[in-house]
Amino acid sequence: MGNQDRNRSDISRDKMLSGSAWMTAGSILSRFLGAVYIIPWSIWFGNYFLRGNALYGLGYNIYSFFLIVAIAGIPSAIAKQVAHYNALNEYGVGVRLYKRGLVLAVSTGVVSAAVLYFGAPLIDGGNPNVIPVLHSLAWAILIIPTMSLTRGYFQGYQQMAPSAISQFVEQLVRVIYMLVTAFLIMQVFHGDWVKAVSQSTFAAFVGAVAGMLTLAWYYLRRREDFRSLIAHSNNQLKVEPKALYQEIIVQAVPFIILGAGITIFMLIDQFTFFKVMKLATNYSNNMLSDLYALFAVNANKLIMITISLSSALAITAVPLLSIALTNGDRREISRQNSNVLTLFLFVMIPAALGMCAISGPLNRLFYGQAQQALGANLLTFSSIISIPMGLFVVTSAMMQGLSQNKRAVKFFAIGTIVKLIFQWPCIYYLGSFGPLISTGLGLGVANWLIIRSLNRQFGFDRRMLDIGFRKIAKYSLFMYAASLMTVYAANFLLKFVADPFDRIPSLIVTILAVAVGGYIYIYLALKSRVADMILGARTEKLRKLLRIP
Question: Which residue has the higher pLDDT, 256 or 18?
Answer without folding.
Answer: 256
